[in-house]
Specification:
The chain has one domain. It starts with a helix and ends in a 7-residue tail after the last helix. The chain is mostly helical and 309 residues long. Helices cover 74% and strands 0% of the residues. It has 13 helices and no strands. It is globular.
């Protein structure tokens, strides 16, 4: 590939990632609207049904392969990756999108830890230092007062990052032959199953009391969805499908290490949409934390060894 072609592919990949970041962070900002009226489990059941229905309809026309080649590995990877996003969306009922995304971006740190202690990969001092700096940035965003945060969802967001890291490793280690459409279907399928299971548990053993509004997001069972809930759930399903499609296209057009750096556009995009939609500006301390996360993540991605799986 010539230098010009490589540069052109990188620019198109960057544009695709910007589109992906703008779409998903915009839609994620309205999960709080859904959380006021419906529950987490109902949200995932409905969103997965909409997304999988759309995939089944357009799949044959686009020539998409949805059947997995290795069902066991596919199911395991879908469960891990779905679990990460289950935790992430649960946090959106109690945290801003920027805060939840900051927790999700602890994933590169966990990837390094797993690579070192599970696979025995040697890590350079620069990448270790970048990982520690990135973790410090996450702490600044989630715990801006320098003390234990009053919101218990803040440390839970880090769990989403750990599971997301495991899912990313599983994608390459367990499912190298699966298509992007297959993995996307598995992701929505896992979340849909989790949603149905959660609704079943809450129907059999309903809680004594469910708090009103977003406070009852996790404990709320099935409710009759109104037009607003249906609309924003459909927006979520559509944004996820289109956004992930753009992300996959970006990884096809440019080197993975470069695309991984562009993915950090999710942080400023989340902060920008939160300000535009809700009028909530990011504090200078949180902005500093985000800048540290972006810089550390970019350094880790660019220092990654492309020859290693």
């Amino acid at each position: 590939m010539t230098t010009t072609a490589r540069a052109s592919g990188t620019l198109v990949a960057a544009a695709a990632i910007v589109g992906y970041a703008a779409l998903v962070t915009y839609a994620d900002n309205f999960v709080r609207v859904i959380a006021e009226q419906a529950g987490l489990w109902q949200f995932h059941a409905m969103r997965s049904a909409m997304a999988l229905g759309a995939l089944l309809i357009v799949g044959p026309f686009l020539g998409l392969r949805l059947r997995p080649r290795n069902p066991r590995a596919f199911a395991a990877r879908s469960a891990v990756h779905g679990g990460a996003l289950l935790v992430y969306f649960g946090c959106l009922g109690f945290l801003s999108v920027a805060e939840a995304v900051a927790g999700l971006f602890t994933a590169p740190i966990f990837v390094l830890l797993i690579s070192r202690f599970v696979y025995g990969q040697r890590l350079g001092r620069l990448r270790i230092g970048a990982a520690l700096a990135g973790f410090a940035g996450v702490v600044i965003v989630l715990f801006p007062d320098g003390a234990i945060a009053p919101n218990p969802a803040a440390p839970v967001a880090v769990l989403a990052g750990a599971l997301y890291a495991m899912g990313n490793i599983a994608t390459r280690a367990w499912c190298p032959e699966e298509s992007a459409a297959t993995l996307l279907a598995g992701f929505f399928g896992a979340l849909g199953i989790a949603g149905i299971a959660g609704l079943g548990v809450l129907a059999l053993w309903p809680p004594a009391a469910v708090p009103e509004g977003a406070a009852g997001f996790i404990l709320r069972g099935w409710t009759v969805p109104n037009a607003e809930v249906l609309w924003w759930t459909a927006v979520q399903a559509g944004a996820s499908l289109i956004g992930v499609g753009l992300m996959v296209k970006a990884y096809q057009l440019a080197e993975a290490s470069r695309v991984a750096v562009f993915e950090y556009m999710l942080l400023p995009a989340a902060a920008a949409w939160t300000w535009v939609i809700w009028g909530t500006a990011v504090t200078p301390v949180a902005a500093l934390g985000m800048a540290i996360i972006i810089a550390a993540g970019a350094l880790m991605a660019l220092r990654a060894d492309p020859a290693r799986p």
